[in-house]
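ok trying again, last paste got cut off:
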Amino acid sequence: MDFRLSTVILPVDRWHEGGRAKWRAAEELGFHAAYTYDHLSWRTFRDGPWFGALPTLTAAATATERLRLGTLVTSPNFRHPVTLAKELISLDDVSGGRITLGIGAGSTGFDATALGQEPWTARERADRFGEFVPLLDRLLTEDSVSWEGDHYTAYEARTIPGCVQRPRLPFAVAATGPRGMRLAARHGQAWVTTGDPKLYENGTPEQSVQAVRGQIDRLADACAGIGRDADELDKILLTGFTPDRRSPLESVDAFVDFAGRYAALGINEIAIHWPIPDSDFAADQAVFEKIAVEAAAQIG
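nice, full thing came through this time. structure:
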């Protein structure tokens, strides 16, 4: 698979005060895809502007023509498969079939309690995710779905006319554990990792590469378990969460070195955050744009 370079644009700008310009620039710079986070609020951005992911992507779809668009990632924390499916079908239609759904089990962040519920345990999140993904898969491929599970119910839910992309828009499943890997193997067109979160503070870049190698091996095992070739799945690294989180954006050479180590493992798409000053994603805008234009051709 050819190497692809994508970006993540956090929904922190008013559309007419910089938001629209970023998405258009992402297309002009030649990124393969531009994603955004699907949260109600997130970490250090909680007390500042933060807009909804799906309306933002709908606006981005009307402002661009070729750029793939998507979430990294949507989770069950505040989404229900029935209503999400209807919105995704609409978004896929508006974009002309350019949407990828990044999907994960969620976490204990602000989304976990925003609707007034107690945060779910890791097992509860995995249980819900195990229902959420196959139900959403059915809703996006069948005209009418009824389902009664432990966590989600659908009764003759209509999702006509379905996605522009057939049989449905692609899923990029974020997973590191065995249950999530099995979901990625069965339902994913892509797999997403941020590396090993245990290495974020005190790990080394070399340890991070080895951790992702192990994750890819486990994904291959999960695919083999259902008779699927793991090479059928795109493998996406969402950057910013590895021990060397800022250094890859210091220069084109630094990024090519960083990305090359992961590409050698089988990662064929890397997503880098659009720079946001005075944040964890601060970076030199000129260097970022130079990476966008020059780096992908040097990797692979």
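cool. Residues 44 and 280 are 9 Å apart (CA to CA). The helical segments are 19-28, 53-63, 81-95, 122-139, 178-187, 205-225, 252-263, 285-294.
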